[in-house]
């Protein structure tokens, strides 16, 4: 909610209103626009009786921000957020390519892939250590050992590492992880989001399979409300009636999120389509429409991957995708 | 996977096969059908080369159970599971009505509602203490205090209590809770499911907003694989393009789940529709099509409820719904 | 849009407003409520500048009816419409069971089924003559010959007949058809709807697979705007991500449509689920929640039906469903 | 279905099989691969008992083509179809930009826009004359007069014209129309598709809001089965639970359709998103991922357009989009 005061409102009156608002549990952020003062209310504004506030002499008007996210809202923070991962930037014109295998499987595998994707131009390494699998009987990841191997790959290549967390109790294991990923299935695991809000690590937050963009932003808000504003959003496909692709890449989520929020937006064409042969075209589309990065699964031997083989590129295929993305980004004029 | 052995297979041969299967990490459950022995394999059967097994002399045939859930599968357990909550039974012809407010708000409120719904015929009391809210700024529930008040209501009325868990670290607070609910947003919070699999409490598992029935069963399997077979499934509406109702009640989930699994199935018309005026007709529909129970939000003062007021019934309205459900159940001939 | 006039508005002023509204192409329906006159505007009200009208002295207030359907709107016509098909009534407490095969296949088949479903209590006979098939190579129906056979079955049993139209040019063939069905795929074939609006036959309008309830009502409005107000709405399943059933029966469409419109609402559990084994429970659910009728596929030999065999009941199964529905309807107290 | 014969099959045996297949109503297309003869069956192959055919001595194997579309299937026609619209080509590397207003409103409007979009590089002019509107009370288009004005604009600029048909009885009015559009709501109006199959005009077939890609291809097959193989497919957004955009652009439909069919694929970002501000980024994405064309709404005065103003670009904005698309197409290396 934004309360616009009339020009020349007396300080005393304003203070009275501010005290009343604080008393209702709201944080008030004061700014100026032309010769008006604007009071932006942060918190649960449903406690404010708008019609009463509007009747106050000093009040010009009250705008309800229908979007209940505040810290993630571009209305309040018009400038793009640039998330800085030890020097690797993403957002605000900085483009980042996160690549690596679905699951960490061995030291040789992860270091081998890390070197190849770095050579091709990737800026971060992804790899799953804790794997959320639909079946309790499926491979659940190498867990702590997987993280150790990622850290080795990071040391070998200098690439920051991105890996998924599934349980706040595992946080101590993530100390050397550079970006913590929240998977689609945990997008509304609010307890986990709150725990991550207390860290200062960049969080890669994936959109749930049936979540709206506003819900994605509310989940980002959970992290940001805790004090951690380093949130990267990720579109990874939504669930529709179309069976040919694993999910449906909602490509217009890119311009839509750029309109609604200042946070960087990454696209994951591997999970969105579930088909390696579609990754090249979907990554190009993402680059062309202004995404701040892409996240691609690359595996040295997709046919024998322990998870998600059918959607993984070989390192050679990844080289080709990187080439094309560079050309597309140059064409659309975003060249950081 | 079910391996049917030929009649008169020698014990020695069978043992050899059993050892080989165990060596692949599979549990084998032996049973008889006519004069054949059946080996039911539990675990990740993708390690078994079916064509090789089929070529063995002793093997009659191999049936792949395409459904990767085993313990929840009606194929393996044709008889309905009856979950017993301190004497209140659900499933296998026993019908249970779980009623109460969305959120516990005060001692007076929860005890007052508990008495009213008990008088009307409810068999369990529901009430939210930890509330998963889309917004971090919305009321998050009374937490531990809320559980304490539920326990008081249980003592006052004798009704078993059902309340939602959001974090495995809260488990110690749930000692006196009779049925632990997993909300739709946590249906695929696999870490939480695993933790609940280690308890022996009945679990009410709600279907996620965009999850298939098979995924719901896989999540039940996570709990059951841990050793806790007291799982109650709950259909509470799925997400579709239709905006008039909050979600779309997938009523055919009732016969579909009854076909696929032996677990009891409950319908929650309050969340499925988001409209109090539809609860009566949807509860009747659920009773008519064979649901094992319903879960209804009842609030003493819906207009001032701290959450989900628009979908809550008054106690008087609830009386009317109970009346009607009794008649419908008698009509369809399921009268426990 | 409803304009409420102030009490004691002068006739002359009112006439001036009425003329101005007529000049904008709007029909005005005048009624009274307490001591106010209400002007209900029918037509494209977007041409009216609401703020201007509100400023007129004689105007108390202007309510925009957000629903752009007028003739189908319960707000304007609070009383249930009862459609009368040569004495067989549907709506307003009259319940109708429409049964028969997906496709008419032979004289023996259709008359045999007609006799069986009539004996079981069906009130109308359905049968497809023109079949909308996804594939151009699939059986397209017996066409004109199929209609002839339906007419024979009608003569043999006295049951009114319901069959689908796909092309307005076929209308002359439908003279002896009692209820003309518009299939889901043609729900927004506006040219066909307009042509049907010029007839006076009852129309059974099926909801499209991905259409909202409001769009269904807008399509009903197309027919009604042409002067034909005998419209029966049919919920037959919508498209969602769930693959276990052919479609998802949106059962809450029944109370929702009853809230929005005065037209009768029928449920088709056969198409909604695509599984004969679910028809019994879904038909019971429909009867329990107040549907005005159901439409069920019955075939003498489902295994060899030329279309939709897997979802057809045998006549014996249909007997059982009818029995149950009668008991459910008695239980919920709607006994016409 | 493809039957592969063994090498050196005797002519007589083969003829016997061919006669048997013809007798079942199937067309047989014979070709060679290595030293095998292949019989491709066109028509309803469900009448063929595969296991019986496989047992014939002369038969090497039988491949069921699960896709029931034949003429649209890339398996049978590996080479891209290039549709030629009086010299303007689309498909197989030829890219086409179809631009113009949602509705034709006046001679001045349509000729003015036609000149502007041609100057910017558009290759065809679109404009609605018959408009499928959800409401019977909304502007339904200028109808025959609209087509006359399109023809004038074609004469003034040389641009081929594209406009929508809603009723086969209107076909005589479409004589000078170069590409006939079938709208999303009529994608499964099979009677209309059959009528268009008898013409030889290029058809632009839009995907229905809730139709799968295979259903889109089956609808194309309806047209092609009639003898008209000039079909252009159009992805224009599907219906999902996301409310921020009017529909959800299924961008992966582009590579998916290119895999499944040889027909050209066009993307319509205007209808897919419903927001003019997203057209630029979505058109770039479409060009980047290999679409054969785009279709964009351009209006001289979007704020006062009689339909779909919010999603229309001004001619100046369209100039910018064309610039960007040219650069993107050069970057991805498809430069016809």
Automatic annotation (TrEMBL), chains A, B, C, D:
Per UniProt, residues of the DAHP synthetase I/KDSA domain are 87-322
Q: Which residues form a coiled coil?
A: none
Single Gene Ontology MF annotation: aldehyde-lyase activity
Q: Where is the DAHP synthase ferredoxin-like domain?
A: 1-66
Enzyme Commission identifier(s): 2.5.1.54
Q: Which domain of life is it from?
A: Bacteria
Q: Keywords in UniProt for this one?
A: Transferase
Q: Which GO terms describe its biological process?
A: aromatic amino acid family biosynthetic process
Name of the protein described by the UniProt record = 3-deoxy-7-phosphoheptulonate synthase
- Organism whose genome encodes this protein: Mogibacterium kristiansenii
């Amino acid at each position: 909610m934004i309360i616009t005061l009339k020009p020349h409102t007396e300080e005393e009156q304003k203070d009275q209103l501010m005290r009343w608002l604080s008393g209702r549990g709201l944080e008030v952020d004061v700014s100026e626009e032309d010769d008006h003062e604007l009071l932006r209310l942060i918190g649960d504004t449903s406690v404010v009786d708008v019609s009463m506030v509007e009747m106050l002499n000093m009040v010009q008007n009250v705008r309800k921000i229908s979007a209940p996210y505040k810290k993630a809202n571009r209305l309040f923070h018009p400038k793009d957020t640039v998330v800085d991962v030890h020097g690797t930037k993403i957002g605000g014109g900085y483009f980042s390519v996160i690549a690596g295998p679905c699951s960490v499987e061995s030291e040789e595998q992860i270091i081998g892939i890390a070197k190849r994707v770095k050579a091709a131009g990737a800026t971060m390494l992804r790899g799953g250590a804790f794997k959320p699998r639909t079946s309790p009987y499926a491979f659940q990841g190498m867990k702590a050992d997987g993280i150790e191997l990622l850290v080795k790959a990071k040391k070998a290549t200098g690439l920051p590492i991105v890996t998924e967390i599934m349980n706040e109790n595992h946080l101590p294991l993530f100390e050397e992880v550079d970006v913590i990923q929240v998977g689609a299935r945990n997008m509304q695991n609010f307890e986990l989001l709150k725990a991550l809000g207390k860290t200062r690590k960049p969080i890669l937050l994936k959109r749930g399979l049936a979540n709206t963009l506003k819900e994605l932003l509310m989940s980002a808000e959970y992290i940001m409300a805790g004090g951690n504003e380093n949130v990267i959003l990720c579109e990874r496909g939504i669930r529709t009636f179309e069976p040919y692709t694993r999910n449906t890449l909602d490509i217009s989520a890119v311009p839509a999120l750029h309109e609604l929020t200042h946070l960087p937006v990454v696209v994951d064409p591997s999970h969105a389509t579930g088909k390696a042969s579609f990754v090249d075209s979907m990554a190009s589309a993402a680059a062309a429409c202004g995404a701040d990065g892409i996240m691609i699964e690359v595996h040295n031997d997709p046919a024998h991957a322990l998870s998600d083989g059918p959607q993984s590129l070989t390192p050679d295929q990844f080289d080709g995708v990187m080439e094309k993305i560079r050309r597309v980004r140059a064409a659309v004029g975003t060249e950081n």
